[in-house]
Amino acid sequence: MMNWKKLMSSARFGDSKEDKKANPLRSDFEIDYDRIIFSAPFRNLQDKTQVFPLPDQDFVHTRLTHSLEVSSVGKSLGKNVGAAVIEKYPELSHLTPYDFGAVVGAAALAHDVGNPPFGHSGEQAISDYFLHNEKAQKIKTKVSSEEWHDLIRFEGNAQGFRLLTKNQKQGIRLTFATLAAFSKYPCSSSLTTRDNDRKSQKKHGYFRAEESAFVEVASQLGLTKLSTSEEAYARHPLAFLVEAADDICYSIIDLEDGFGLGLVTFEETRDFLAEILGDNYYPEKLDNIASDKEKIGVLRAVAINTLIYQTSQAYMKHEGEILNGEFDKALTDLIPTTPTLKKLSDFSIKRIYQSRQVLEKEAAGYEIIDGLLEAFIEAVFCKFYNKNKYSGRHKSVYRLLPSEVQFKLDWASSPYESVLEITDYISGMTDSSAVKQFRIMKGISLA
Description:
Elements: H1 4-7, H2 28-37, H3 40-43, H4 63-88, H5 97-109, H6 120-132, H7 137-140, H8 145-152, H9 156-165, H10 176-182, H11 211-221, H12 239-260, H13 266-277, H14 292-317, H15 319-324, H16 338-353, H17 356-384, H18 392-399, H19 403-411, H20 415-427, H21 431-441
Helix pairs in contact: 2-5, 4-5, 4-12, 4-14, 5-10, 5-12, 6-17, 10-11, 12-14, 12-16, 13-14, 17-18, 17-20, 17-21
């Protein structure tokens, strides 16, 4: 059984004991939040697609605004649960509800830092390059089967863990608690004994390159190991709250964005939110609000608060199972409004996620990411692994890589590591920088 005292360790990944200094004004978990805010991967989220491509309307969310809102919801969930957990376990009197809120808030803030440009289609585009591009097939013979699984199953969650644990001394150096709460999928891409009934094994949370880092996190916190032969663990209990915060936000906020773009009517949006509110929906209060946009904003705020309350209650109902590593479901599948959220999800797929502007963005993203990967990986492989074919064209493409990427490639010890440096670079691009780089390399634009 996992232990809350150990699970809430404030020790930092990459720090030696002598590096640790107490700060009387900020907890270690609050420092995690600040470090993420000031990091380059987080900053780049301001120009990455959430659902709608490169919007010029100020009410449409980017990955950055989405992440800030998920963090806000996560803090509330963490504080609610933290208060109940501390009351249940007297030995946790050294902690406060704000510590729980800070861990969930920081992990939620970082939850999308590994996502490539062009939304979730960007993840699939990277995987598809290795799966289907003929030039990529030569890489398969130069990497292990486990490493190949990483490439053909590119995962933003695993990429995020990589970013948060790279360059230990120069990197972000988060606490073990925050890193584990961030990790919704504590297993590798090559896990063979995958349990489809466990939500935490639906995807993977780290690449082979970061396996030792994740094992260190799991060992430090005492995460329950689920397999004796493979590295697969039960989630850190607070990871369920990070997942729930994300589920709550995208369910409600994507609906609001769809309304703002005219894809969903005011009546449809209002009725979904009213159904979530149930008996707490008072339509007469909307009469004093001037615009439909403001009305939806008010309903959205109260709906999110309702979902936070219901999710906190569901968590504590299952807290014992969660701590034992037996519970492995989405909390938002176990609350009174679950049927409404399921209906909203089906509606959003048809009316929002399959709208023409979203599909156009996805199609463009596939072309751009495939083109960038092909050009850069071919240049890198010719330079380091097939030098007799390193042409002038390859040299020009290679020199387009930032100097820090070239430096890392010079020190890469294998083809697998070289490829990861390129996927790091491309997945770290913003939508705009990827479009600009692609247009320049294809000769479409020189500006």
